[in-house]
Inactive receptor-like protein kinase At1g64210 (Camelina sativa), 597 residues
Amino acid sequence: MHIFFFFFSLILCFVLISSSQTLEDDKKALLDFLSHLTSSHLLWNQSSPVCHRWTGVTCNANRDRVVSVRLPAVGFNGLIPPFTISRLSSLKVLSLRKNHFTGDFPSDFINLSNLTHLYLQHNRFSGPLPSILSELKNLKVLDLSNNGFNGSIPASLSGLTSLRVLNLANNSFSGEIPHLDLPKLSQVNLSNNKLVGTKPISLQRFQSSAFSGNNTTDRQKKQHHKLPFGLNQVAFLLILAAACVLGVFGFSFIMITCCLRKKCFPGKLRKRDSSSPPPGNWTSRDDNTEEGGKIIYFGGRNHSFDLDDLLTSSAEVLGKGAFGATYMVTMEDMSTVVVKRLKEVVVGRREFEMQMEIIGMIRHENVAELKAYYYSKDDKLAVYSYYSQGSLFEMLHGNKGRYHRVPLDWDARLKIATGAVRGLAKIHEGNNGKLIHGNIKSSNIFLDSQCYGCIGDLGLTAIMRSLPQTTCLTSGYHAPEITDTRRSTQFSDVYSFGVVLLELLTGKSPVSPAGLAPKAATTTQGENMDLASWIRNVVANEWTGEVFDMEILSQSGGFEEEMVEMLQIGLACVALKQQDRPHISQVLKLIEDIRST
Ligand SMILES: *[C@@H]1O[C@H](CO)[C@@H](O)[C@H](O)[C@H]1NC(C)=O
Ligand SMILES: *[C@@H]1O[C@H](CO)[C@@H](O)[C@H](O)[C@H]1NC(C)=O
Ligand SMILES: *[C@@H]1O[C@H](CO)[C@@H](O)[C@H](O)[C@H]1NC(C)=O
Ligand SMILES: *[C@@H]1O[C@H](CO)[C@@H](O)[C@H](O)[C@H]1NC(C)=O
Ligand SMILES: *[C@@H]1O[C@H](CO)[C@@H](O)[C@H](O)[C@H]1NC(C)=O
Ligand SMILES: *[C@@H]1O[C@H](CO)[C@@H](O)[C@H](O)[C@H]1NC(C)=O
Ligand SMILES: *[C@@H]1O[C@H](CO)[C@@H](O)[C@H](O)[C@H]1NC(C)=O
Ligand SMILES: CC(=O)N[C@H]1CO[C@H](CO)[C@@H](O)[C@@H]1O
């Protein structure tokens, strides 16, 4: 009996020890890794939580294991300390690209059985690839380009059955290219090696540029193609080098949220097929290094992108506004950020940086986060978080944007207003209570994962050529005094926010007043009237019930009192005289009280 128990507990212990690797073990492995490397500026604070604070480290949803380590361009050199990184047994993504690591391919990495993405490009690795590499059965992306690997490409790579991307360019691989039977492979680059012979049939489907700079022959003809190393890229590498030398200033956040985020309207909100063309020239045109910029990150938790990423990742144009073009940029880890390429910046570098630093300080769940910025003579970029559910404008007025129209019930609208007013109240506290948004409108309000409103586009009006031209497109949001002063204030922000509230209630767009015509026709000014004036008129004539969006009236019986309350708040915000408007903190309290009373 005793012996039985003894063995039983021994087995139990063994099972527990072998299967319960913890975050502590992961932390230890990472600290071991770092302790062997003297070369970087990276500091992981032992007493701060790994999952929240450590640069480049991301955990799983339970926050009990490390799943991604991304430390691109942090100045590491020497050998990768063996048996450190490879102890992170849950690791899925490892990026150590653009460092100066030397030595052989770290063969202990084959213990990382869950690894899906391995980025070791732009280091100084050498020697042959171990054929045992094929043990990494889950590997989808393998980028070993721009190193000094030599020897032949192991035929065992055929065992990497999940592989989608293989980049071995700019190494010294020799011999013939093996037959690689990888049906999922969609991108290959073996250019600039010392390979000979014919392309295997299994790789015939890839363009010849993937094999350029070698002595391989096509079935038809020899390839002699090599792209010139353009000036743009030279400038670009200089900028990057400068950024490295200056040290890693701060770090950005991984945007895994877009994957984790639930949709507010499952099944209903469909993304349109994105048929927008990619942006034209993403490459920095800045070849004056003195004026050349560096990218500044806020946050310091994780950095999943560098400037290189922003300028080379696949980008999609989201829109072209008064401040310049807005792009949605998807990173190599499939996270997404919004990049604004600002035109007509009127302030100089110092003022630009000061303004960005002020905005970067604003951290609130209802304010779209400024993740990074970049200033050079020719390019000014602001990088914000991306909200996958689109803007309130798209939600309300549908079909014109990237999303199809979805009915929004009263609860949803109340939540959006609540989030947005919290965000704006936080913004007005910024810069010692002096910060102004200057461009509040429904297309700058986004929905977060909990479907609360979030304020986007913060901080741009202050650095741009006065206000965007007051065209009929935006004037619906502008306080009357702005027409004369051309300067935004916190009062005018409250006015614009009031217009958004009215927009939520009526479902009518302030930017297309023609839609008001049928009901407004009885008034004197007819269809030239903006949304706020129209509602003032209707309410003055005691037709209150008439202003509400049919969609919320039909959906939510019994909430009319709440709507009337919101209407009164909205009307107070759009008071013609600025001193009659409430402070945003009062608006916040009023809106939060709608439900809680
Ligand atoms: C490390 O983190 C702790 C807690 O977050 C903090 O109190 C401490 O100042 C940090 N130490 C350094 C050297 O940054
Ligand atoms: C690897 O991933 C699988 C599922 O994706 C998981 O069940 C397993 O526990 C992971 N391995 C480790 C060592 O975390
Ligand atoms: C893999 O990990 C085990 C311990 O879990 C270790 O004994 C072994 O040497 C490692 N393999 C390699 C190739 O590093
Ligand atoms: C690979 O490079 C190393 C030096 O880095 C050299 O000793 C070795 O002979 C080379 N192997 C082949 C196959 O070229
Ligand atoms: C190979 O190196 C050249 C010149 O350094 C560079 O232009 C090219 O982009 C590199 N190829 C890859 C696939 O990284
Ligand atoms: C290319 O390879 C062929 C053999 O496959 C060899 O005859 C030829 O000399 C090589 N050319 C160069 C430029 O290396
Ligand atoms: C492969 O990389 C070379 C530069 O090294 C580039 O010119 C070529 O376009 C790339 N081909 C593919 C298919 O990516
Ligand atoms: C066809 C071709 O470009 N072959 C080149 C392959 O790479 C070797 C080594 O870099 C060159 O010598 C060949 O000219």
In short: Confidence is low (pLDDT under 50) at residues 8-19, 219-291, 469-473, 513-528. The domain at 265-386 is CATH 3.30.200.20 (Phosphorylase Kinase; domain 1). The chain is about 30% helix and 15% strand. Residues 126-127, 150-151 surround 2-acetamido-2-deoxy-beta-D-glucopyranose (ligand 4) (CB under 6 Å).
